[in-house]
Chromosomal replication initiator protein DnaA
Amino acid sequence: MVIEFPFENQIDFWQSNSQITEQIRQICFTQTGQHVEPIYVLANSTSGLTPTMTPPPTLAGSGMSPETPLNPEYTFANFIQGRSNQMAYASAFGASEQPGVLYNPLLIYGGVGLGKTHLMQAIANKMLERNPNARIKYVTSETFVNDYVNSIRRGSQEQFRNEYRNLDALLVDDIQFFASKDETQLEFFNTFNALHDNNKQIVLTADQNPKQIPNLTERLVSRFVWGVPVEITSPGTETRIAILQSKAEEEHMEVPNEVLELIASKVNTNVRELEGALMRVRVFADLNHQPMTPQIAAEALQGMGFADNTPALTIDLIQKEVAQFFNINQSDILGKKRSKNIVVPRQIAMFLSRELTDNSLPKIGSEFGGKDHTTVMHAIEKIEANLKTDEKLNRDLQQLRQRMQ
Ligand SMILES: Nc1ncnc2c1ncn2[C@@H]1O[C@H](COP(=O)(O)OP(=O)(O)OP(=O)(O)O)[C@@H](O)[C@H]1O
């Protein structure tokens, strides 16, 4: 599938290929309802992007797939640990410290977008940091299958074996696709043994425990679970917030905590969607020339199929929004100052509290620093009267309502 992607207005916001890839994943998911992996991002010269993701050279004539480059951004340093991935992190880190020794094979399994590939590649990146000449091959199981089939077709099995067995580490992503491919499973079994017998590191990922993957031969399953099969599950709320904070920092974005909390509360599926949601909120806010507020975030994520748990509008939230809008402090709104730049926002906040919440006049008064209900009534009448003639007031109120819906 080829997706034409309207870079124009949005290019400023995407500074790295990984972000673009993430965004494309999101778009593919929205359009097709399926998780697909974009292969290459081709950028033209006017887009302002350097085409760093152009296809790497093929191994001419060998029938072997082009090398899949490791993503240098997948490191242990930027992987956030939580209860859901602690074991996987510790085992992967252990494998990177002493490849081929303790955690061999290392099998990480769990649902989509939870960090399996990240950890797998972090091992390889760490190994390369220590020894830039380490021979490491990263493939998906589909690539392994294709390479094997091509080697049969071309009679180049010797070359295939050289390619896959003379390694310091072999990383195979998504081994569930070996299911039902008996000949490939036998070839992989032999590859596995050759590497393992020589204490070379093997790292595998799967979408579920291999014992539950149908149509995998028993001897292969027994090899897969030989070392330490570790599961990654969906991160809890705190870990999701920490991941968002780290992502925002990486991208030099200043995002208020309430916004991160809102995104984390809505997107509880996987980390890929979590990151996509953050980017979506950022782009949405920028395109609308609005600051990132919980309301804007909720609007940006509307209709994306995430949980609708937008916090109910409260008087406190209205006061905060109005204060931010008029560039004053919330304490000014609650206080007694009588200067015009404070009195008008205070009256507006009271007016909106009456309009947008179910609170009574006495309750609103008490939440505005213990004021009497007649003060609230006076404020509401004043705003209603001014709305008949004051265009700016109409515009301000319109914008405030939009922010809070
Ligand atoms: N704990 C984490 N800390 C920081 N980033 C994370 C974490 N978990 C996942 N990510 C990020 O989420 C995105 C998806 O992760 P990754 O591709 O590793 O998932 P996966 O489990 O391999 O998914 P799939 O099964 O779809 O291949 C990546 O950008 C990765 O960096």
